[in-house]
Backbone:
């Protein structure tokens, strides 16, 4: 049982050192001191802390979410239009291919008829 407690304390100490060496403790301390020194306490302490640490405010976040949603709708519309255009293009290609094939067949028939008319009869 004692060994478990020692391991737990060692983990806590290692984590504390990690937070200290990476500057997290210093940053959090500064933000909390700034909050403490506010004469008029903000309605949302969490939002105050987020802003001080460089995160977007709740209203900025909501604006970004709305913008993202609008852009996703536009993307979906444009993608659907793109797919439709690709289908139309394939249809045009297919039609062109069929017409080219028909023209080739007609050209072959005309050439055969011409050859038959021009060529001397074989005996």
Residues:
């Amino acid at each position: 049982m004692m060994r478990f407690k020692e391991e737990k304390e060692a983990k806590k100490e290692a984590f504390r050192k990690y937070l200290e060496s990476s500057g997290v403790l210093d940053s959090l301390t500064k933000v909390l001191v700034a909050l403490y020194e506010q004469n008029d306490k903000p309605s949302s302490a969490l939002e105050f802390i987020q802003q001080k640490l460089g995160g977007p405010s709740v209203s900025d976040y909501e604006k970004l979410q709305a913008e993202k949603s609008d852009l996703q709708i536009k993307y979906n519309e444009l993608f659907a239009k793109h797919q439709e255009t690709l289908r139309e293009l394939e249809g045009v290609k297919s039609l062109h291919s069929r017409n080219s094939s028909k023209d080739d067949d007609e050209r072959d028939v005309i050439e055969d008829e011409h050859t038959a008319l021009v060529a001397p009869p074989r005996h």
